[in-house]
Amino acid sequence: MDEGSTGARPERGGGGAGCLLAGVGAAVAPVVWAPQAAVSVDGGFEGHARDLSVLFIDLPLIVLGGALVPLCTWALATRWGQRPWVAVLVALASLAFAVWGLTEWWTPRKQLDPGYGPGI
Description:
Blueprint: H1 3-6, H2 15-42, H3 53-80, H4 84-105
Helix pairs in contact: 2-3, 2-4, 3-4
């Protein structure tokens, strides 16, 4: 079909950029998240505060969000804008903002180790 019969623009092959941005987001988000989650995985003294739900629940959500946030903003920016490099910058800025929001909002449970209270 030609462009005149359907009225659609031919695709310019920009899908690779979206996949690359999704991969970058899926890699960056857990790397930033992991140091905060280490407290829950280690558990402290004798594993007292161990909470492995951060690995089974939080980690998949972090990876999924890290992949979807830049991909969705890139897709929206390519529809609204004419320049693909602007869409990439918007997607990277949204990923940076989402990672910053994650580190500000999400804090794992930090309990004191038993036996290390005041007065010892």
